[in-house]
Design a protein that fits this description.
Keywords: Aminotransferase, Coiled coil, Transferase. The chain is an alpha/beta fold and about 290 residues long. The chain has two domains: about 170 residues, Type I PLP-dependent aspartate aminotransferase-like (Major domain) (Aspartate Aminotransferase, domain 2, 3-Layer(aba) Sandwich), CATH 3.40.640; about 120 residues, Aspartate Aminotransferase, domain 1 (Alpha-Beta Complex). Helices cover about 35% and strands about 15% of the residues. The protein starts with 8 loop residues before the first strand and ends with a helix.
């Protein structure tokens, strides 16, 4: 809103987390911003050229996730940042899925704003942070006080903020070993599925984080599969974890396959952390095999 005198156009991707998609949609509906939701290529890949061809002289904001929360797909944030270095549009990067898991340096990717949430690196729920370019002006989110550099009024939730900082410190101290542990779990799961001769395919669209695995089992209804696994004590989802319990198909897969594709009905999303174990993966595959066979 603070930069509307420079233009009225916002670009984001069609595969963003609902926290971004719904916010941008609100800006369109309430304040009549012109919004472009950029879809991936037909094969699911998302090169920076897709953003480039949608840039306009009146574009004032590009918002893009670093890694997708449903598939783990890594998006070309550095390449987009380079594109925008010669454009007036400010660049927001949603780094929620990568913070504490891979090195994150906002200046290296050309991010003007970068957001993250503590619970994704084992911090408290309900707290996050926003990096911002001090040369840019943006309006206050909540009014009424001087807190958080006059950007977000209200008494700070100090214990959660301290928890966030400590959790991130611990994640960064073990960033390489944690990543390797999650990679091992990911590879082990795929290996066990093949060993059990369970038919499946991956919804994988290029370089990805190993922390999220989106698998599909042909002709198997994922809602029924989700219910059976849940009753067996396994917490998985069919889309965003924040939308767990809903029956809506994945908007991420819909952006790739189309809304009428049967592939929207046979996928599940599995998430790993370094706190999971190989034994847990074995138990999961054992239960999955008993359900599918």
């Amino acid at each position: 809103m603070a930069n509307r005198d420079k233009g009225n156009h916002i670009i984001t991707t069609a595969i963003e987390h609902p926290s971004v998609l719904n916010t941008v949609q609100y800006l369109h509906d309430r304040y009549k911003f012109d919004v472009t939701f950029v879809k991936p290529n037909a094969d699911g890949t998302f090169p920076a050229a897709l953003i480039e061809k949608n840039l306009r002289p009146d574009t004032i904001l590009v918002s893009m996730m670093w890694a997708n929360n449903e598939t783990g797909q890594l998006l070309p944030v550095k390449e987009v940042g380079e594109l925008l270095s010669q454009h007036q549009a400010v660049f927001h990067v949603d780094a929620t899925q990568v913070m504490g898991k891979i090195p994150v340096h906002p200046l290296e990717i050309g991010a003007d704003f970068l957001s993250a949430s503590a619970h994704k690196f084992h911090g408290p729920k309900g707290v996050g942070f926003l990096y911002y370019n001090e040369l840019l002006h943006f309006d206050a989110l909540i009014h009424g006080g001087e807190q958080e550099e006059k950007r977000r009024a209200g008494t700070e939730n100090l214990h959660s903020l301290v928890g966030l900082a400590k959790a991130l410190e611990l994640a960064l101290e073990n960033i390489e070993s944690n990543y390797q542990a999650v990679e091992e779990l990911n590879h082990h799961l795929l290996s066990k599925l093949k060993e059990q001769e369970i038919p499946f395919y991956k919804n994988n669209f290029g370089p990805s984080m190993p922390h999220v695995l989106n698998l599909a089992f042909p002709n198997e209804n994922h809602d029924l599969l989700l219910t059976k696994l849940d009753l067996a004590g396994f917490a998985i989802s069919t889309g965003s974890a924040c939308a767990a319990g809903t029956i809506e198909p994945s908007h991420v897969l819909e952006a790739v396959y189309g809304k009428n594709s049967d592939k929207l009905k046979e996928n599940i999303r599995i998430s790993f952390s370094e706190l999971n174990t190989l034994d847990e993966v074995n138990l999961f595959v054992e239960k999955l095999s008993s359900i599918l066979k």
